[in-house]
Specification:
The structure is a single chain. By secondary structure, this protein is α/β, with parallel strands linked by helices. It has 3 domains: about 120 residues, no CATH class; about 40 residues, no CATH class; about 170 residues, von Willebrand factor, type A domain (Rossmann fold), CATH 3.40.50. The chain is about 45% helix and about 15% strand. Helix 2 runs antiparallel to helix 3, helix 6 runs parallel beside helix 8 and helix 10 packs parallel to helix 11. The protein is flat, with a radius of gyration of 25 Å. About 10% of the residues have low confidence. This is VWA domain containing CoxE-like protein.
Length: about 375
């Protein structure tokens, strides 16, 4: 892995965890490392801290992400005192002796990076659990919208007449000191529709953990599963322990890894929940490979109605990561004209990208 790719991945993870890092800061870091080198772990850490961290309150977050990215460690784990930092290779030793004859651990830069980029379906059980832990630690910036209520503002949008008149009493009725109002900001609702059919079995767990992290961070998040029937699992995710939350979700679902009636499930959602306000003005994330055994006309009508209710529809398809993929599945081809963004969803890195897209979808026009 090249140093540029290494730093780019680290900066991306910092942004996902909630630290604002401008492009100029990452360029400064690359320039600093070109001078001091990357062989000394502490030197790399201090260069990164000096160029990327702008506030003292962000130091703890930076340290946690640094340990996670370069060492694959949770924040409460202790970093080894003797560490050699290097790049991954086939014949690289796991440990080597220093000048005093003591063994020191050799840490590879690419361990966590490889896990973030791996297809969830290809991971062993232990690797999958670690990938899910990475997803659970995502930090979300809430997508925002304008509210209907006005709040005090310095921008000249609407005159606060009553406040201005009160101030004019002190200036003989002349409105010299004017005050203004603007529409306030509120978090935009986020809606997940997760396909749990057999073809999505290897990936659905990842998005459910993603939805758990989003609901914990943002609050106004609703989660439904789509299989042979529709299930509302939002309340089941209101548990601080993600493993317990997934157990509660499993107890509610009796068609996990079964068949799929995607169009019919979307139609049921529109009738029972969407038109009543859950989808109105929301950012909708549909997680599915598009396989549907039902009537294409039902699928088309359901997607058309959902697109009219929602602010935007993001379709996340694990198969989209393949370079030769084409959306030829009947359900996928039917839904394509109604979606606003078509995204891959096969790895931790793709979920990180999804988190950024969700935030950008809430940006005010």
């Amino acid at each position: 892995m090249k140093p540029e790719e290494l730093i780019t991945g680290f900066v991306e993870l910092l942004r996902v965890r909630g630290l604002r890092v401008p492009v100029s800061s990452s360029q400064d870091l690359l320039g600093a490392l070109a001078v001091v080198g990357i062989d000394d772990q502490e030197r790399v850490r201090e260069c990164a801290r000096a160029t990327l961290v702008k506030s003292q309150k962000d130091n703890e977050l930076f340290d946690n992400v640094f340990r996670e990215y370069f060492f694959g460690q949770h924040p409460d784990e202790e970093v080894p005192r003797q560490v050699t930092v290097g790049f991954d290779s086939q014949d690289a030793p796991e440990a080597e002796q220093d000048d005093d004859g003591q063994m020191q651990r050799v840490v590879r830069y690419s361990a966590v990076e490889r896990l973030r980029s791996a297809d969830l379906r290809s991971l062993e059980a232990a690797e999958r659990r670690e990938a899910l832990r990475l997803i659970e630690r995502f930090r979300f910036s809430p997508p925002l919208r304008r509210s209907y209520r006005f709040v005090k503002s310095r921008s000249v949008q609407r005159l606060d007449l009553s406040h201005t008149l009160r101030l004019s009493v002190a200036t003989s009725g002349e409105p010299i000191r004017r005050r203004f109002l603007s529409k306030g900001l509120r978090s935009r609702r986020l809606l997940f529709l997760v396909d749990i059919s057999g073809s999505m079995h290897a990936y659905a767990e990842g998005l459910l953990h993603f939805a758990w992290a989003a609901r914990r961070a943002l609050g106004d998040v609703h989660v439904f599963t789509l299989g042979t029937r529709l299930h509302n699992v939002s309340r089941a995710l209101d548990v601080s322990d993600p493993d317990r939350a997934m157990a509660q979700v499993s107890s509610l679902i009796d068609d996990f890894a079964g068949g799929t009636r995607l169009g019919a499930s979307l139609e049921t959602f529109n009738i029972e929940h969407g038109a009543r306000g859950v989808a109105r003005g929301a950012i909708v994330v549909v997680f599915s490979d598009g396989w549907d055994r039902g009537d294409p006309q039902v699928m088309e009508e359901a997607m058309g109605r959902l697109s009219r209710l929602a602010k935007s529809i993001l379709w996340v398809n694990p198969l989209a990561a393949a370079t030769d993929y084409a959306p030829l599945a009947r359900g996928m081809a039917t839904a394509l004209p109604y979606i606003d963004a078509f995204l891959p969803g096969e790895s931790v890195r793709s979920f990180e990208h999804l988190a950024r897209v969700i935030c950008s979808e809430g940006e005010l026009q």
